[in-house]
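Readers of this paper often ask what the protein records in our data store actually look like. Such a record has a labelled line for the sequence and another for the backbone structure tokens. Nothing more is needed to write down the fold, since each code stands for a local backbone conformation. The record that follows is passed on verbatim for readers who wish to inspect the format.
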Amino acid sequence: MNLPSGLKERSIKMNLKEQIQNYKPYNEQEQKDKQTMLKYLNTFDDCLTRNNEFGHFTASSWAVNKARSKVLMIYHNIYHSWAWTGGHADGESDLLGTAIRELKEETGVENVTVLKPDIFSLEILTVDGHIKRGKYVSSHVHLNLTYLLEVDENEILKIKPDENSGVKWVELEDVEKESTEKWFCENVYRKLNEKLRRNQI
């Protein structure tokens, strides 16, 4: 049955809201960001698209190898740093699907295994104003959900020239050396590695 657009949007928001409500925060950062995300969903109607210029939902992946010793990272053209993969929901309600799509597009891999179908972590990320495809994008926030995925190290890697200029496997203990984004290293990447080790997935 096809729902009217208003009802469809409400249904999408309810599903996303339920996922976030059911998520158990790992630390104080996740607890505060979870509360803010839920407030945001209650305040804005268009939080899944870039039409909301204050902020919108995105999805990222912590894509590890089978041995759980490395993570697949890209050299991000805008941030000039090695970073995880991810991108905008752009209206999609399936943010796990968004994370998988972005991982494939940004690294060239074809086969992805979902290690946890549920949210692996959540974080609100600040995005400084920048030029994208010739247009200025004002500073805003990404309400980001992260998923834990697995990729075979033998997969052929390819860059996505309009977004990144490098793709490589990075040892977990070297992630904070490779990335130049201090806040991400201290508040996101370190947390993701801790959670990976503790979950022993």
Observations:
- The radius of gyration is 16 Å.
- Residues 5-199 form a domain with the Nucleoside Triphosphate Pyrophosphohydrolase fold (CATH 3.90.79.10).
- The chain has one domain: 5-199.
